[in-house]
């Protein structure tokens, strides 16, 4: 497969995230200071999921910027849409900020919709030999699907999304991708308030395009079409062509595709971490650290202040975080170092552990390494699934850890213990007892946190 550029429809994903998470209980998604965050959290979670699971080569995000040439052509364009919710508007601003913090290109163009920007970027990328995958909730973009361009649309939920190839478009709409615009010209589109030909519905539009291929050819053979539809088409010819112009996505905009900037492996971890802290997205910080293989201390070294599982000091809470101690980390990659660690674990009063993996999906992830600590200031890391460097056999490591990690007299602590427990259980090591989970503790102190 060629390198792939992932293009994200910013507003479409923001709306989808907002309604998926905020519907029914908008107060659930607010910070301690009252800032709404449902749409931002959903958007961030999708970004991380794409980076975790799909591992795109390049990524960019396009946003709408207001009125477009379509509103000048037809003032009623999108006139039936509900006003943007008041609590979503500031979240769109935050999402733009977040895209910048991720160090991803944010591309907008006055007078045009994000669809036009996405279409133009897809054309440019395809011409350069890249594959393109567009993440959206807008079926209009199905007109762009071809042998190099895939469109990803959600199903009933955000996690139920699927990719659309040319054959999938035909199955869903009954026409080829290159006929989608002419189909909308005939039948209109109520979601965008595109009028279409009065009285022409889905089945008639499909039948006409199956027989005549294009809108132009339909009008070239108007005299062959049965009377009542012939009259409707003749009466609304101008409206049909207006509707086609409204529905067609422009792919010829002069937009800049900076592939070096769009590289998906150049995230600004410190900036994203800082933003996640401000928004109280603590669970996403751990996902970010897993994704980038960034130790927590490194992730916070470039931001103002230290990591606090319980949020910012002085935010109306009666507790404060202690500074993180200096940690000496020992890599365990020899039998001698493993033997030393084994002895330390067997006499420990408590053991903290964590797993490093290839994914946040605990049922699909591969084990990369295990981190352990038994006292403040000292940590051990056992590499197991690295592509380079010295490593011990997995079975030998698990046999060495098993006596202490299953000892019922030694408490085990961690952050999101369920994930790490399942990971090691899948490899034949059932850790017990699970005594303290700092992520659960943080939630008990601040149930509004993420």
TL;DR of this structure?
With 450 residues, the protein is α/β, with parallel strands linked by helices.
Descriptive report:
The chain is α/β, with parallel strands linked by helices. Among the domains are: 4-178 and 250-262, 5'-nuclease (Rossmann fold, 3-Layer(aba) Sandwich); 325-445, Nucleotidyltransferase, domain 5. 42% of the residues lie in helices and 13% in strands. The chain is built from 19 helices and twelve strands. Strand 11 (412-414), helix 18 and strand 12 form a beta-alpha-beta unit. The radius of gyration is 27 Å and the shape is elongated.
Secondary structure elements and pairings:
Layout lengths: L3 E6 H13 L15 H17 L3 E5 L6 H5 L15 H13 L4 E2 L6 H14 L3 E5 L13 E5 L8 E3 L1 H8 L6 H8 L14 H11 L2 H6 L6 H9 L1 H11 L11 H4 L6 H10 L3 H11 L3 H6 L26 E4 L3 H12 L4 E7 L9 E9 L2 E6 L10 H12 L6 E3 L2 H10 L7 E4 H8 L5
Parallel strand pairs: 1-2, 1-4, 2-3, 4-5, 7-10, 8-11, 11-12
Antiparallel strand pairs: 5-6, 8-9, 9-10
């Amino acid at each position: 497969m060629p390198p792939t550029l992932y293009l994200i429809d910013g507003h479409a994903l923001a709306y989808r995230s907002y309604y998926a998470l905020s519907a029914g209980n908008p107060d659930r998604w607010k910070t301690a200071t009252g800032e709404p965050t449902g749409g931002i959290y959903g958007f961030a979670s999708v970004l991380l999921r794409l980076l975790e699971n799909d591992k795109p080569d390049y990524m960019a995000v396009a946003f709408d910027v207001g009125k477009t040439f379509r509103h000048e052509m037809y003032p009623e364009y999108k006139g039936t849409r509900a006003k943007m919710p008041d609590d979503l508007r500031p979240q769109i601003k935050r999402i733009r900020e977040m895209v910048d913090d991720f160090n991803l290109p944010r591309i907008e163009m006055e007078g045009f919709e994000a669809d036009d920007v996405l279409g133009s970027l897809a054309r440019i990328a395809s011409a350069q030999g890249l594959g393109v995958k567009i993440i959206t909730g807008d079926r209009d973009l199905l007109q762009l699907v071809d042998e190099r361009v895939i469109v990803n649309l959600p199903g009933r939920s955000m996690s139920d999304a699927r990719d659309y190839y040319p054959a999938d478009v035909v199955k869903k709409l009954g026409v080829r991708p290159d006929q989608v615009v002419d189909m909308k010209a005939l039948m209109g589109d109520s979601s965008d308030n595109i009028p279409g030909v009065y009285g022409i519905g889905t089945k008639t539009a499909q039948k006409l395009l199956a027989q005549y291929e294009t809108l132009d050819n339909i009008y070239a053979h108007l005299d062959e079409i049965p009377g009542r539809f012939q009259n409707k088409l003749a009466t609304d010819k101008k409206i049909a062509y207006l509707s086609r112009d409204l529905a067609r996505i422009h792919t010829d905009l002069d937009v800049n595709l900076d592939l070096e900037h769009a590289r998906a492996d150049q995230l600004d971890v410190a900036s994203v971490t800082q933003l996640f802290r401000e928004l109280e997205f603590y669970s996403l910080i751990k996902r970010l650290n897993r994704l980038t293989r960034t130790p927590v201390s490194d992730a916070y070294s470039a931001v103002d202040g230290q990591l606090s599982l319980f949020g910012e000091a002085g935010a109306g809470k009666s507790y404060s975080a202690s500074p993180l101690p200096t940690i000496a980390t020992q890599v365990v990659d020899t039998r001698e170092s493993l033997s030393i660690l084994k002895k330390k674990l067997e006499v420990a009063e408590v053991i903290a552990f964590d797993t490093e993996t290839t994914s946040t999906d605990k049922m699909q992830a591969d084990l990369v390494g295990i981190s352990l600590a038994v006292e403040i200031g000292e940590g051990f890391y056992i590499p197991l699934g690295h592509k380079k460097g010295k490593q011990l056999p997995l079975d030998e490591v698990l046999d060495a850890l098993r006596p202490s990690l299953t000892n019922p007299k030694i408490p085990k602590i961690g952050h999101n213990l369920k994930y790490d427990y399942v990971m090691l259980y899948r490899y034949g090591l059932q850790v017990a007892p699970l005594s303290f989970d700092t992520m659960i503790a943080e939630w008990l102190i601040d149930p509004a946190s993420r």
